[in-house]
């Protein structure tokens, strides 16, 4: 189970505010502002206080985006604008709980409200769904990983939300690891030819993962030197039989290097059954594709009240 410990170490809930992300935040704000907020004249010169409140239980995610969003809205400095986060990303929250407090020009608070809430509700929904699945795996030593089934433009944020929910990230993109799937193997002329070609061109630290849909494909990929196997759409019963055989085969390889065994294409309701098969991790797109937004709202009060 040594591979599991190294995989679990990847479940760090941090997010880098890169120049690219800052530009995305600016673009998303502009999408809502358009030619300018037509309600500004009703608020100009007024100060406001606001807070975010949870309307349902879940796991909060997205607070880390508030400060950069505000900075993109008001520029590099705005002495009159204050943000106080009361809950860190990745924290379980309850309906009615106050999450953060804002104070500043009312027109600026209104201008960022919808963009900020939309992002936080989407990310909190993913974190909440991930946490529910991770809870099913508690005590098994098996990690829960995401997939590349993400919303275009939101991959970094959605995968951050998975980490906030206690999961780990699979590949961020095609340049992280070589995952050879059915089409690769067919067009390359088989698993041996595909792995050999990747090994010849990829940097030496790059891992080669092979997706196997049958026991025969899994054994062939292991014999050809795959670093990891993605065992797709196997039943728990089939994996219970197959996993020990694959472990024994890996021990006989000249390098005796360990292999990471991953179950994918699973029914989330059967997570415990899959965890009991001996796999190192389970990957699923469910937190991205099946989760609902977590309901959050922003409420205003007069400054100083």
Written account of the structure:
The chain is an alpha/beta fold. It has 2 domains: 2-134 and 292-302, Aldehyde Oxidoreductase, domain 3, CATH 3.90.1170; 177-284, TIM Barrel (Alpha-Beta Barrel). Helix content is 42%, strand content 18%. Strands 6-11-10-9-8-7 form a 6-stranded parallel sheet, sandwiched between helices. Strands 3-5-1-12 form a 4-stranded antiparallel sheet, covered by helices on one side. Helix 2 (19-33) packs across helix 4, helix 5 crosses helix 6 and helix 9 packs parallel to helix 10 (236-251). The termini are far apart.
Layout of strands and helices, then pairs:
Elements: H1 2-8, H2 19-33, H3 40-43, E1 47-54, E2 58-59, H4 66-74, E3 82-85, E4 92-93, E5 98-105, H5 106-136, E6 143-145, H6 155-164, E7 178-180, H7 182-188, H8 191-201, E8 208-212, H9 215-223, E9 228-232, H10 236-251, E10 260-264, H11 271-275, E11 281-283, H12 286-289, E12 296-302
Parallel strand pairs: 6-11, 7-8, 8-9, 9-10, 10-11
Antiparallel strand pairs: 1-5, 1-12, 2-4, 3-5
Concise structural overview:
The protein has 305 residues and is an alpha/beta fold. It has twelve helices and twelve strands. The longest helix is centred in the middle third of the chain and has 31 residues, at 106-136.
């Amino acid at each position: 189970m040594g591979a599991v410990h190294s995989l679990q170490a990847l479940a760090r809930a941090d997010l880098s505010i890169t120049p690219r992300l800052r530009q995305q935040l600016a673009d998303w704000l502009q999408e809502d502002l358009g030619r300018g907020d037509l309600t500004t004249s009703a608020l100009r010169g007024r100060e406001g206080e606001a807070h975010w409140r949870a309307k349902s239980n879940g796991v909060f995610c997205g607070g880390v985006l508030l400060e950069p969003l505000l900075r993109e809205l008001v520029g590099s400095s705005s002495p009159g604008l204050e943000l106080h986060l009361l809950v860190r990303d990745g924290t379980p929250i309850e309906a009615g709980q106050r999450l953060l407090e804002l104070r500043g020009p009312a027109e600026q608070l209104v201008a960022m409200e919808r963009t900020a809430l939309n992002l936080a509700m989407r990310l909190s929904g993913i974190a909440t769904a991930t946490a529910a699945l991770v809870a099913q795996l508690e005590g098994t030593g098996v990690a829960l990983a995401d997939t590349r089934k993400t919303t275009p433009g939101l991959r970094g944020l959605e995968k951050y939300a998975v980490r906030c929910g206690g999961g780990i990230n699979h590949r961020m993109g095609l340049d992280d690891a070589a995952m050879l799937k059915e089409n690769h193997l067919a067009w390359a002329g088989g698993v041996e030819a595909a792995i050999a070609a990747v090994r010849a061109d990829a940097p030496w630290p790059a891992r080669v993962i092979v997706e196997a849909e049958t026991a025969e494909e899994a054994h062939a990929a292991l014999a050809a030197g795959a670093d990891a196997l993605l065992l797709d759409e196997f039943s728990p019963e089939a994996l219970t039989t197959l996993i020990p055989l694959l472990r024994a085969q890996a021990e006989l390889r000249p390098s005796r290097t360990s292999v990471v065994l991953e179950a994918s294409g699973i029914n989330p309701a059967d997570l415990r059954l899959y965890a009991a098969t001996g796999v190192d991790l389970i990957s699923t797109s469910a937190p991205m594709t099946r989760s609902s937004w977590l309901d959050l709202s922003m409420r205003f009060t007069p400054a100083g009240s």
